[in-house]
Amino acid sequence: MALAFIGSLVVPLEAQTITIKRSGEALTVQAPGLGFLKGETLTRLKDGRGVRVDLELSVMPGPGGDAAARGRRTFVLSYDLWEERFAVTMAGSPPRSSSYLTAPAAEAWCVDHLTIPVIELGKMRETPFWIRLEFRVLDGDATPDRDEGAGLTLRGLIDTLSRKAKAGALTHAIEAGPFRLQS
């Protein structure tokens, strides 16, 4: 329980760990040190299981503050054991995907597709602001609204009974700032 608490803490880092960029009418970030493809997540992938990663980008007026604007995306990752490379699919319409990626390239691909429209920043377009980048990793077959008793097939029953007990979602967040939006 203590590990789950420690893993969910927001870790403030120096501004160099996250960089921002205005790309047309969207705010994008780069966070090469995010690191969600390691530890338990990497073990799951190498066991042949897909994982779902929910990323959220928040813009705040100050450190630890309430988000004034948010961007969210969901990605499903898999691992090719023979090629030792990752494949990523972005959920949504239209779905996008990329494959044959290294771990850092897969993480960067996900973060690159996480944006916030500049118009949503409001007054913060002219003032300094902080960025929070969070990720939550779930098994690829886990969905938040899943009804475990509905529609079980023989295959689903076998999968459910053979699945290891879940330790819960892996979560982590980093914050950085202050930033100013360049026109």
Describe what you observe in this structure:
The radius of gyration is 18 Å and the shape is elongated. The termini are far apart. The chain has helices at residues 2-7, 39-46, 103-112, 154-162; strands spanning 10-12, 19-23, 26-30, 51-60, 69-80, 85-90, 96-101, 115-117, 129-139, 170-179. The chain contains four helices and ten strands. Strand 4 (51-60) and strand 5 form a beta hairpin. Residues 1-16 and 142-151 have low confidence and may be disordered. With 183 residues, it is α+β, with helices and mostly antiparallel strands. It has one domain.
List keywords for this structure.
10 strands, alpha+beta, 183 residues, seven-stranded mixed β-sheet, single chain, disordered N terminus, 4 helices, elongated, three-stranded antiparallel β-sheet
In angstroms, what is the radius of gyration?
18 Å
Which structural class fits the helix and strand makeup?
Answer: alpha+beta
Strand content: 35-45%
| Contiguous helical run count | 4
The proportion of residues forming helix, as a percent range, comes to 10-25%
Morphology call: elongated
> In angstroms, what separates the terminal alpha carbons?
46 Å
SSE sequence, one letter per element: HEEEHEEEEHEEHE
Q: Which stretches are poorly predicted, pLDDT < 50 over at least 5 residues? A: 1-16, 142-151
- Average of pLDDT: 80
Number of domains: 1
Largest sheet: 7 strands, mixed
